[in-house]
UniProtKB/TrEMBL annotation:
Binds 1 potassium ion per subunit. It comes from Parafannyhessea umbonata. Residues 10-216 form the YjeF N-terminal domain. Its EC number is 4.2.1.136, 5.1.99.6. Homotetramer. InterPro entries: CARKD, Nnr, Ribokinase-like, YjeF_N_dom, YjeF_N_dom_sf. AMP binds at K432, G433, S434, A435, T436, G460. PANTHER family: ATP-DEPENDENT (S)-NAD(P)H-HYDRATE DEHYDRATASE, ATP-DEPENDENT (S)-NAD(P)H-HYDRATE DEHYDRATASE FAMILY MEMBER. The lineage of its organism: Bacteria, Bacillati, Actinomycetota, Coriobacteriia, Coriobacteriales. (6S)-NADPHX binds at residues 56-60, 130-136, 159, 262, 333, 390, 461. This is Bifunctional NAD(P)H-hydrate repair enzyme.
Length: 537
């Protein structure tokens, strides 16, 4: 797994490196050289334009320019001020050095001149704004960003694409869209989430010093990006000596007359994710509707209120059923009512491996008056509990219902409040979004995100079914629940990619993701076993 550090903690690595004799100036030289090395790896590069800002990110750019000049590349720096007028000492020194080495420059050029230069540029190096950037890019950077994005040149961003927050992954309207980002020392969360996914292109981490790895670990990574090899051994090895029950049995509890389809999607997804026996428990009037849809999945009708949701009597029956299954998923389409809150509450207090999704989470929010983190006794259990909220559901659980977490880091913080309420490793929160974090008390694991085609109604129900099936099939201890959940997310995401190939990136429906789940898991397992053989990107 690759560590991810909050931007403020990167400074701790920087000062640790200074203590072992690697100065900031030396780091800047190594950073600029690392960026230049990536430029040199680009095919057929002869002319490069480096856009430099006024801080240390700009300093990296000047170093890169000088390094490229020495390798006979035709390089021009575009800068708001001449080297002598740069305020920061480090950046001024390297800028003057590049100037003395014969690097060409354009100081505060008009827009038309920048556009003209870009016409003959093969590679742009974006060294305008790095981790010191806040707010919206001001002139002239806003204009230069526009020119770069319109240029068609290959763009290599230094540390972070200008305009993107390396911490939050949020960007204003002006943000460099790079083909590659050479990020210094360590991954930062904003590169992996939200707009970061569109802006960074391929991410290359330049460690810059041999002590970096140790110092990064000491700086307490906020998350870990999973690699495929991390998933080895998470699921039980295949065996022919199984029957439908030993392959893992899943109970899906949910549905209402208003939303009968959601639990069916989840149950189908569980069946397509390798659970040998999947059962649905739904309110009585919903049962005949579903039974006709899916002959493989037995449907049980449980006591219902007149509005077609579970009644109070359903709770004990559900708990008894759950005790006989390897894992239970509760929530899809069940609505929030006295009866459904009772069902969720009963399941939580039963020692059964449990996944709570969708309205199951909203019931939990109701039960705890939007302060789940104030109810440690509720969450204290031995068997696994996996919550799969999207950001609005997550917000409702921790009192942020008006303003849900807006970034991956904010979502991880909210998820941490929940898992720390209990403090045990049996709870994992899968904080879903365009990038997802699987958070436990020990770690936050970031699966490789799937395509935007996953953002379609019912897709979350499908994920719930996959997570429940993997929980039923797994042989891991509670400590590995974040990795197990991350694998479920990757299979879901990969199934989304297969479905997008089949139906077009705008044409995917939740059912298409379900149909691709089995193939997605096979493909991923092949990748895990033979990592070099195929390229998943
Ligand atoms: N942390 C480290 O160990 C290393 C950092 N290095 C570089 O240093 C960078 C951070 O340097 P700095 O802290 O100087 O920050 P930056 O260079 O990212 O940005 C600071 C500059 O941008 C300006 N700025 C901020 N917001 C702006 C806005 N909205 N519009 C226009 N201008 C704006 C500031 O006035 C300042 O001049 C990193 O991104 C990386 O590229 C590297 O030199 C090597 C190692
Ligand atoms: N832009 C995106 N890129 C990748 N995955 C996404 C994106 N948007 C949503 N997803 C994924 O799709 C699923 C949507 O779940 P959810 O919001 O619960 O949907 P629903 O409630 O409609 O079932 C989650 O797994 C989420 O991580
Ligand atoms: K940059």
């Amino acid at each position: 797994m690759q560590p991810v550090l909050n931007v403020e903690d990167v400074k701790r690595v920087e000062s640790g490196l200074t203590e072992v004799g690697v100065s900031i100036s030396e780091l800047m030289h190594r950073a600029g050289t690392a960026a230049a090395n990536e430029v040199m790896r680009t095919d057929d590069v002869s002319s490069v334009t480096v856009f430099c800002g006024l801080g240390n990110n700009g300093g990296d750019g000047w170093v890169a320019a000088e390094s490229l000049r020495k390798r006979d590349i035709d390089v021009t720096v575009v800068t708001p001020v001449a080297p002598d007028d740069i305020q920061g000492d480090l950046a001024r020194v390297v800028a003057k050095s590049a100037q003395s080495a014969g690097v060409k420059m354009l100081v505060a050029p008009p827009k038309g001149r920048v556009e003209e230069l870009l016409l003959s540029t093969d590679v742009v190096v974006d060294a305008m704004l790095g981790t010191g950037f806040h707010g919206d890019p001001r002139a002239p950077f806003d204009i230069w960003i526009e020119c770069i994005n319109a240029s068609g040149a290959t763009v290599i961003a230094v540390d972070v694409p200008s305009g993107l927050s390396a911490q939050t992954g949020l960007a204003s309207s002006r943000c460099v869209i790079a083909d590659m980002t050479v990020t210094m020392l360590v991954l930062k969360p904003g590169l992996l989430a939200d707009m970061g996914r569109d802006a960074c292109g391929t991410i290359v981490v330049a460690p810059l010093a041999e002590q970096t790895e140790r110092l990064v670990l000491e700086a307490d990574p906020v998350a870990w990006r999973a690699d495929l090899e991390d998933y080895v051994d998470v699921l039980a090895p295949p065996s022919n000596a199984v029957d439908k029950f030993t392959r893992g049995s899943v109970l899906v509890v949910g549905g209402s007359l208003r939303f009968p389809g959601a639990p069916l999607l989840a149950a189908q997804a569980a069946a397509r994710s390798g659970a040998g026996y999947v059962t649905l428990a739904v309110p009585e009037p919903v049962a005949p509707i579903l039974q006709s849809q899916m002959p493989e999945i037995p449907v049980m009708g449980l006591p219902s209120d007149p509005d077609g949701t579970f009644s109070a009597e359903a709770a004990d029956i559900v708990a008894e059923l759950a005790l006989k299954r390897t894992a239970t998923l509760v929530g899809p389409g069940m609505r929030v009512s006295g009866g459904t809150v009772g069902v969720v509450s009963k399941l939580i207090s039963s020692e059964v491996p449990l996944v709570i999704d969708a309205d199951g989470l909203n019931c939990l929010a109701r039960l705890t008056s939007n302060k789940l983190d104030d109810f440690p006794e509720l969450l204290r259990r031995n068997e696994p509990l996996i919550l799969t909220p999207h950001r609005r559901e997550l917000g409702r659980l921790v009192g942020q219902q008006e303003v849900p977490p807006a970034s991956l880091t904010a979502a991880m913080e909210a998820a941490r409040r929940i898992v720390w309420t209990d403090g045990g490793s049996e709870i994992t929160v899968v904080a879903k979004g365009s990038a997802t974090a699987c958070v436990s008390v020990d770690a936050a694991v970031l699966p490789k995100p799937g395509p935007a085609a996953l953002a379609t109604a019912g897709s979350g129900d499908v994920l719930g079914g996959v997570v429940a099936a993997f929980l039923a099939r797994s042989n891991v201890g509670n400590d590995d629940l974040p990795v197990l959940s991350a694998l479920a997310c990757e299979v879901h995401g990969y199934a989304g990619s297969i479905a997008a190939e089949r139906f077009g990136s705008h044409g995917v429906m939740a059912r298409d993701i379900i149909d691709a789940l089995g193939l997605a898991e096979d493909a991923l397992e092949e990748q895990i076993a033979f990592p070099e053989s195929t390229d998943m990107d």
